[in-house]
Amino acid sequence: MRAVVHESYGPPEVLEVKDVAKPEPEENEVLVRVHASTVTRSDTGLRNTEYFFSRAFTGLRRPKRTIAGTELAGVVEAVGAGATEFGPGDEVFGFKGGANAEYVCVRESGVLAPKPAGLTFEEAAACVDGPLLALTCMQAAFPLEGKRVVVYGASGSIGTASVQLAKHFGAHVTAVCDTRSVDVVRSLGPDAVVDYLHEDFTSTGETYDLVLDAVGKHSFRRSRRALSPGGLYISADLGFLWHGPLAVLATKWVGSRKAKIGIGKYRKDDLLLVKELVEAGEYRPVIDRTYPLEEVVEANRYVETRQKIGNVVLRVAP
Length: 318
Ligand SMILES: NC(=O)c1ccc[n+]([C@@H]2O[C@H](COP(=O)([O-])OP(=O)(O)OC[C@H]3O[C@@H](n4cnc5c(N)ncnc54)[C@H](OP(=O)(O)O)[C@@H]3O)[C@@H](O)[C@H]2O)c1
Prior knowledge:
The chain is α/β, with parallel strands linked by helices.
């Protein structure tokens, strides 16, 4: 099968489309014929130097998992002897390392769910990483019903998901993005959109219960005056060597406004919620660009510009 392989860490050019052995499903796994995958910020961060700290888990000198990618949508081709939830022919979407490939094996109990009705494979592949990270990052502020929420960086993958999910949970949402993204972000249904190139949301006199910094570009210090007493600032950016952990520590015992870092988790239940919301017309993926698998280097270069709006998809099956 064809797969995007990288034997070393480095720039997008370390990625190569190669023929590798097709995997076989184990007892409780399903073999998915991947129709579409994506390139996420995490995929690029794990390959380049951005998430160098994660190499303690992904391999110190070279990647332990050599096939790139994490999001997938496709059709179940075969199942292991103990698998009962899915069968051949089922259309699915989910999250699994090694997804930039024609086939991937996923544990049936893992982050895999029936593909939302009405979505193409390309759309479904873009409905995993952003919303699942958004859900776990926002969790510390639940319940959101009636709360005033700012999503800063509303044009990214986590941002576009956060706007829609916060609306679903009943929040009053102010989405902050730059001029070129205003129309796309407005189409996601926030109550207000602020173009940060023309207006600073912290200087309008309005206050909020939650500032969710979906791109790690608006620190707690800069957000503080827009937080209501008891308000919460959450950064989706792990910021290991930057201001995030310091703000978390500093606000733990002092002041009523708190800072937290959102640690993303990938959970099957959250994926099932996304499926439900898509089918109810409450969630849709934003796709910026779609590349054929062969152009994976170009796709990674684009994601590394940090300018994508929503998601970048890879078309795997013709
Ligand atoms: N918490 C976790 O577990 C976890 C897991 C994975 C990734 N992350 C982190 O989450 C962050 C977001 O990921 P993502 O995939 O959503 O990012 P993304 O899609 O790459 O975000 C790109 C968007 O961010 C906007 N942006 C860039 N600089 C900005 C700024 N200064 N102010 C406002 N918007 C800005 C860009 O639009 P404009 O420049 O046009 O505004 C662009 O639309 C990344 O830092 C990533 O490392 C966290």
